[in-house]
Amino acid sequence: MLTVDDFNFNGKRALVRVDFNVPLDKSTFAVTDNTRVKAAVPTIKKILADGGSVVLMSHLGRPLKKLKDDGTIDTKKFTLKHTLSEVSKLLGVAVKFASDCVGAETSELASKLQPGEVLLLENLRFHKGEEKGEEDFARQLASLGNVYVNDAFGTAHRAHASTAIIAQFFPGAKMFGYVMANEIKNAERIMQHAEKPFTAIMGGAKVSDKILIIEQLMLRCNHILIGGGMAYTFFKAMGGNIGASLCETDKLDLAKQLLERAKQSGVQFHLPFDSVLGDKFDNDAQTSISDNMSIPDGWMGLDIGPKAVTAFSEIISKSKTILWNGPMGVFEMEKFAAGTKGIADAIVSATSKGAFSLIGGGDSAAAINKFGLADKVSYVSTGGGALLEYFEGRELPGIKMIMS
After folding, report:
1. What is the pLDDT of residues 130-162, one digit of tens each?
2. CA 315, CA 47: separation in Å to the nearest integer?
3. Could you tell me the sign of the dihedral formed by the alpha carbons of 184, 155, 140, 400, in that order?
4. Helix 338-352 to helix 362-370 angle, to the nearest 10 degrees?
5. Would residue 385 show up in a list of annotated catalytic residues for this protein?
6. pTM (predicted TM-score)
7. Could you tell me if 184 and 399 are in contact, meaning their C-beta atoms sit under 8 angstroms apart?
8. Known catalytic residue at 206
9. Is 89 designated active site?
10. Cβ atoms within 10 Å of 136's Cβ, excluding its own
11. Ramachandran region of residue 133, left (φ > 0), alpha (ψ -120 to 50) or beta?
């Protein structure tokens, strides 16, 4: 696996695919969580320290899916210029900005870069060729550098122009940045070299989103802990009354099959005993606690309850390897955050005693960051969907094209 550590960038112009798809304040468009930008900084600084220059390319949101009423791109909302000051601050360099990611003006800006300088391109997804993986668009991007570095794990599962197709134009000069290298190393540690007992904590809304990863984990884990909205589909399948809780009624048979498969595989499959209920999906809701087989009509489970937190924490405390993907409840609302916070605290405690803990991107990463615990676990992934697909055993185009 070729990484930036294996290359001297002196006199080179590195075209670096980063993931600056960061959350922004809805009114000021200021970056509200700079985790992904901070993650890319070591790769960029390594290139600059070698005496190279850097052209950064990224996407932000889905601008072509969210056009304005007149059918045009909402450039005010989706411009990467919103990230420019944050990138400059974290790098300690006055980063230049190109108003497009291709074209004559952009090519000129790139060609004039001096060693130690950085240019940020406008949103790749302003062009249809990016998500369609068009070779001609990839070729235009490739002309902006003479070395290609992919450091955007969050998009590694997409065969887009800038993440996969572009690599063919850099034979012998394509490699991973530190983010990608670390993501692969830590994911492989979980899936191939996990020290036992190995506990996986699965949360989120839907069983259907986690079927494949649960099946893979059953081959490797000692314990699988289930929380979040997906748990109520299992309770419904077991004949429980789940009130107004989230349920995938078309996945009840699947839930039964997964429970049976867990028994056959020998993995211990744990569902939460109780839930914190709300009478509506709102932080101002009235709350109650109930066991999950007899939730009253009109009430919905919005977080795992205190008995579940205690039981899950006990299992986590005895684990040597921990994978967490998906929150235990609606942690964005303070009334329903205690379960997710309790699990996060348990993971931190286990990590302090020597366990290896990987937080699986997406909402799990958002939660661990919200609670200020990111530096107290072993690794926080920057990729949600990409990490899931990697764990599901799928081939990720962004990785394959660098390795080939």
Report:
1. 999 999 999 999 999 999 999 999 899 999 999
2. 43
3. positive
4. 80
5. yes
6. 0.88
7. yes
8. yes
9. no
10. 10
11. left
Set 45, 261, 320, 385: catalytic member? 385
* DSSP assignment letter at 308: H
Residue with tokens 């919905």: 300
Peptide bond into 23 cis (omega under 30): no
Q: In what order do the strands lie in the sheet with 300-304?
A: 287-291, 274-278, 300-304
**Is residue 266 within 8 Å of 296, Cβ to Cβ?**
no
Give residue 232's pLDDT.
Answer: 97
* Residue 234 tokens, joined: 């299992």
- Distance between CA atoms of residues 309 and 273, nearest Å: 9
Q: How far apart are CA 348 and CA 375, in angstroms?
A: 9
Instruction: Confirm whether 112 is a catalytic residue.
Output: no
Of the listed 17, 36, 236, 251, which one is catalytic?
36
Q: HSE-up of 122 (CA within 13 Å, CB side)?
A: 20
DSSP conformational letter for 121: P
Task: Mark 384-399 as b/e (b = at least 16 C-beta within 10 Å).
Answer: bebbbbbbbeeebbbb
Are 271 and 235 in contact by the 8 Å Cβ rule? The answer is yes
Whether pLDDT at 397 is above 80: yes
- Tell the burial category of 57 from Cβ atoms under 10 Å away from its Cβ (0-12, 13-18, 19+): buried
**pLDDT value at position 35?**
84
